[in-house]
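Final report, section 2: Outcomes. Of the targets proposed, histidine kinase is the one most frequently requested by collaborating groups, and we therefore present its record in full.
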Amino acid sequence: MNDPQNYRTALDNLPNLVFGAAPDGTVEYMNTRYVEYTGLPLDDLLGWNWGWVVHPADLPNSLDVWAATVRTGTPREVSQRMRRSDGEYRWFLARAEPVRDEDGRVVRWFGTCTDIDESKRLTDQLRGTRMLFRSLVERSPDGEVLVGSDGTVRYANPSAARLLGFTVEELSGTDLWGSVHPDDREAVSAWLERVMLAPGEHLTLVVRFVLRDGSVFVADVLGTNLLPDPDVRALAIQFRRDEAPAQ
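The predicted structure is given below as tokens.
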């Protein structure tokens, strides 16, 4: 396996795009998969010409990162879009590692470009979905609250804070059930026990809250135990004003 040709054959069969560079960052080697992916002759990619296959919007940052990597001699990575032979751009994670001699000087760089397009697009899609969901919740006329198993408010939308007579900042971190009418606290405790025992189920209750000005706010409350959900880990509480007169 000490035959250089064997190493080259191994590198050519890796799923990653592999490159090698001189100490000053000049690219001197690319494996077969790199050339096949770009569809360009090897000579057109060596030196600093590899920049032609990087998306124009990503190229300035990629060049800055590579220059800093070579200047400092430290491993770095950067996400960039790279043009495929058919003209499509896909996201890659480019990493570079230095090879040093006995005196610690960088004598060569080796790097890989790993296709992360699917995971990147999925992450962006999920982020967009979460932002849309958050936007809808923020604008909902209903109170939307996430609370821990101890009742501590982890998140409250503006409607929840307004209905309960708080600002969002004031409500966050407090006990959601602390302002429940004394006569309703036993019923709330029993309802919470049912919610805790029925993950995923939607259970309702009518609750009176005593606001700071002494007025009473009657709410239709919907509770869902999402504590087992790793993306939530909270009780989801939704409430709206009950039109029946407060007693």
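The CA atoms of residues 17 and 220 lie 58 Å apart.
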